[in-house]
Amino acid sequence: MKKITFLFLISLFISSCNQQTDKVIDTISLSSEEKIDSTNIKTLFNSALTEGESYEWLRDLTQNIGSRLSGSPEAAKAVVWGERLMKEVGLDSVWLQPVMVPHWVRGEKEVATYTTNGTQKDVPICALGFSIATPKSGILAEVIEVKSLKEAEEMGEQLRGKIVFFNGAFDNTLINTFKAYGGCVGQRYSGARICGQFGAKAVIVRSMTNAIDDYPHTGTMSYGDIPKDQYTPTAAISSRAAEILSADLKKTPNLKFYFKQSCKTLPNAPSFNVVGEIRGSETPENVMVVGGHLDSWDLGEGAHDDGTGIVQSLEVAYLFKKNNIKPKNTLRIVFFMNEENGTRGAKKYAELAKLNKENHIGGLESDAGGHTPRGFSIDANLSNTKLLKSWKKLLSPYGLHDIDKGGSGADIGPLKDDHVTLVGYRPDSQRYFDYHHTSTDTFDKVNKRELELGSASMASIVYLMDKYLYNNTPVKP
Amino acid sequence: MKKITFLFLISLFISSCNQQTDKVIDTISLSSEEKIDSTNIKTLFNSALTEGESYEWLRDLTQNIGSRLSGSPEAAKAVVWGERLMKEVGLDSVWLQPVMVPHWVRGEKEVATYTTNGTQKDVPICALGFSIATPKSGILAEVIEVKSLKEAEEMGEQLRGKIVFFNGAFDNTLINTFKAYGGCVGQRYSGARICGQFGAKAVIVRSMTNAIDDYPHTGTMSYGDIPKDQYTPTAAISSRAAEILSADLKKTPNLKFYFKQSCKTLPNAPSFNVVGEIRGSETPENVMVVGGHLDSWDLGEGAHDDGTGIVQSLEVAYLFKKNNIKPKNTLRIVFFMNEENGTRGAKKYAELAKLNKENHIGGLESDAGGHTPRGFSIDANLSNTKLLKSWKKLLSPYGLHDIDKGGSGADIGPLKDDHVTLVGYRPDSQRYFDYHHTSTDTFDKVNKRELELGSASMASIVYLMDKYLYNNTPVKP
To answer: What is the distance between the alpha carbons of residues A292 and A333, in angstroms, rounded to a whole number?
Structure first.
């Protein structure tokens, strides 16, 4: 009796979640074509989860090459790696698209410190991409704290001679962490441009993250078109250091902050997009592009940003080949170069597509991390948006509920045109900004199943786009 | 121009995910009551994400107390901790429910090894809960590999004198990892019972996980009602070790496996469920119970299993109080004892509820980890199931799409009755069995936002259940 009760309780535990996924798809409501689609999608998921290669590819890229900022030797190695891997997967043709990229280097590890109440505090800091260096002896100045670009602009001349400290934090009530990022990242991107005009000595920015921790997050900044003599060194400090500095400033408003960095921008360097394709079986002149970006920031290993997007994109082609699904249109995989600080690869790709009169009918980008799948974001005309949303019933059994209008991605964005259906893959965003642009964006943060589910999600929507956009999109004259 | 293009591309990146969450709820389609509900749910989420306490409570429980197997000194400390915390949160009354629990101890760290081709291989191993020890000198025997209980039963007498090695692996094509667990856990639970009857010398079981790694996963087993002289020592080995052993057995079928463990079952020990409640403002005689389990396995820190469920349950009451939401029915928080190896706390709670003629109208359990929210599983009558499913439009903006019929949980399961609406909280399951019952189930695996989103998800459905089941459920005569 006791045993039976206990087994009953164990089975209660196991019966959990059975409504979430692996639910029997209500095939009665599906048309005969949709039944075929449902079966093919299941095949793609089964294949990704049992014979996927993306996780080992990612291990190789992140651990044997590591971070790969545009212009770096590692970025060059990643290009060779990508070309070799595309050939190994057996794409019909693989080539490199030359592109000149910015070449910024961090130099020596940055140092930051200040003393308050007799205690010296070391501050985790990192230069922002494209920032200039400090003088060799560093910069020492009083700090003025602001929470937004607007507040800095209003302070105007009060910023002169100061280190301006942007401390606007993520709005944690936003469920989608990308929205919180969007509300803050202007400080990082434009802080130095604004403050330089008012004679600020330097700019430090609270790291772009929801977490309170000790890792500074780098990222790109721009001086815009202000004169060079108004350029100021700019860096990110960790979120915890920002909280502590803010508290210390309340007690000691005139404390002096010191930091030193030796970064610089070298002449543009040659690099490449890596491109490979499976030729379409029916209308090869129509192209569907799937990609992520091969470059990464120089901290960490570029795992979630965007190693996962790279290996998932290639796995789309791998899964098609492995399961003998022949795309009607040409399926092109692109490892874009230089998304992080210039998007030169994206621009080059779009420029060449136009020059060569290629007819892109669709694009899919994975550049939001490798976490558990949530859905897709659609940037397309009304009828194609409606078409893609109608696939929810086929995709929701895999946790893909969020299929709605929205942006796609920075690398495929330049292909935007009314007849092109652009899609962004959207995994769960909660952990993304814990790792984004930091030393902690490493392979161990990626879960194998979550990565593979992403590959399969992407392959599934590409399968559907290939099949239905083919009949749906007018060929461009 | 270049600047504008670049800003445009950055904004494309940021515009990602905007369809997933934080979408404007289509309030036109909501009734006036639903608009109030929508506002209150947003308040609960905002509060959890900005002033939640669950993460620090979990840090305290997992890092200052640690693992807390039933009967252990740590489990006793956790009871004191839970009672104190419930009082600090300001529940109207807090009390302990005495319950006798099994008391199994692991003893010394287990050892396992075998030699093949002249190479000695050490095997990560851990005894299963309720297993007997090996002789002090350990057990050395040939190994026979099977993939299921059925296969073992069919082998019958061939098992005599052997170490039976259950190597049935998770079906990784199942999207919901709990289903894969359900398909395998019988080997762990009943392997020794089956094999002991055929004179097997011992049983080793592949760990219950999707991952291939080096961590053995413990868990409960049962000898059922076989005679004591048929009891055999049983243990789990890591999934990687299982793969390697299986390969080695193909080459060397008669290799001898050695292991030693000194676990034992002591007399039952006194322990407690920790119970606290906010008295209902309108019908306090109706009870809504929210809980998780306070005990954990002895490896790791019991973070995802089930520290997260404990702190989320208490945070439901905390969020109600903090936001001045007064439950109409009595809201009772329970930290159940002994879910892992006996569910004695669950049985005691249900027994006392019956004895005291308490009218439970609903229950919610969190015991599936602290990962990002996905939905709820409903075990209720048809009309209440329909009612809860109708709340999808209010809950889906928070990623809670999966609201369907299914199991609830092992601790509230014994309250099942046609008029009681039982609900299981269902976070994403992909990473859960990476940590389940292992040394890696530690605080650092829990993401603060994911935990808080779970608390808010739970508080939201409790808010709705309290408001609508109140009018919907007949009071038991």
So the answer is: 9
